[in-house]
Amino acid sequence: xxxxxxxxxxxxxxxxxxxxxxxxxxxxxxxxxxxxxxxxxxxxxxxxxxxxxxxxxxxxxxxxxxxxxxxxxxxxxxxxxxxxxxxxxxxxxxxxxxxxxxxxxxxxxxxxxxxxxxxxxxxxxxxxxxxxxxxxxxxxxxxxxxxxxxxxxxxxxxxxxxxxxxxxxxxxxxxxxxxxxxxxxxxxxxxxxxxxxxxxxxxxxxxxxxxxxxxxxxxxxxxxxxxxxxxxxxxxxxxxxxxxxxxxxxxxxxxxxxxxxxxxxxxxxxxxxxxxxxxxxxxxxxxxxxxxxxxxxxxxxxxxxxxxxxxxxxxxxxxxxxxxxxxxxxxxxxxxxxxxxxxxxxxxxxxxxxxxxxxxxxxxxxxxxxxxxxxxxxxxxxxxxxxxxxxxxxxxxxxxxxxxxxxxxxxxxxxxxxxxxxxxxxxxxxxxxxxxxxxxxxxxxxxxxxx
Length: 451
Hints:
The structure is a single chain. By secondary structure, this protein is an alpha/beta fold. The protein folds into two domains: 6-148, Rossmann fold (3-Layer(aba) Sandwich), CATH 3.40.50.300; 154-448, no CATH class. It contains 17 helices and 15 strands. It has helices at 6-12, 14-20, 34-45, 70-80, 102-114, 154-160, 165-177, 183-199, 203-212, 215-232, 247-265, 282-294, 327-332, 338-343, 351-365, 404-411, 413-416, and strands spanning 23-27, 48-53, 91-96, 118-123, 144-148, 235-237, 243-245, 298-304, 315-324, 371-375, 379-387, 390-396, 421-425, 430-432, 435-439. Strand 10 (371-375) and strand 11 form a beta hairpin.
């Protein structure tokens, strides 16, 4: 089992959920470790655990098809799970793949109002699929507390490799104090980071790599995961909790998904519908893009028409870029030699796209909304994020190039109101002329920066 930072937050907020009568809901793409995390949390906090997987146990849905009285539900669940002791106030019921049973999700409200049994819902596409319209079912609004889980970030990856917390603490200290990192550690982190770009943060893939160190097996696992994701494209739930596929929607989602890697390779100032297919329009593919974003597979980054707070107020709805939620999966979509090239430092035409994707992934995992700034195609800033009361531009340099756009913004404070910027390169930490240079591998600590 890998260490996941979200587990700390779940433990901290347990009593808040209890007082608010809210079930814990863990959402995220398939195979990012949601079930493992839920079971770890449950084992730390409860004496008894009832684990239900609606995808593997179709018969269990029958328990929820009549009334949702808690006493009756517990009685019937105890018949299905005779080895579980349903002890009041010390038992948690885990509903895995809860999107497969709409009435089970409805029951969360009854369980929370009753208060004797805690519930955890796990969903891969929770909120995406349709609900059972025959019974006019609705989401239990106000009785769910949502947490999103993605693949492992670089810090979690290092810990999975056996790197000690002392090293992580040392890196954090260097970032906060703007101090140069010891050269031997710096070079080792660069090596691990190149490895992380290729392997990514999917638990199964990391396990395979740590065991065999075979990039062929890594790529095979990654592509299998992507095929499983594609199997979910365009899926919905019918009136009887059966999954069905809308083929027209499926084809549109596939067209969008397959176009992202090629669009990242080009320095487009925004996502171009014409690259999906000839004559494509936003109206035709809006729902397909929204599906990929809401399911957590794709990260959407909007252009800003001004550098001012709040950033969301200056976001352009129609000008955006799309990134993959896991850079390792992105790499697996490229040719078979890309992974070994990256480990050797030869990034080819995708070098800008790779580093942009890894930063987008990291910002998202730190709960930052994603924005970039492109002014008339002459002033380009890769990412913009908010650090407390400051607007911070990020420029990414795959090689040690200059930072013309970043310096332009900093040199015109009266116009842009931006005092500090961050440059991400392979170089060590330095701070000069209000620009903080950070090595790529420290993107997981961007929220810890002090400026």
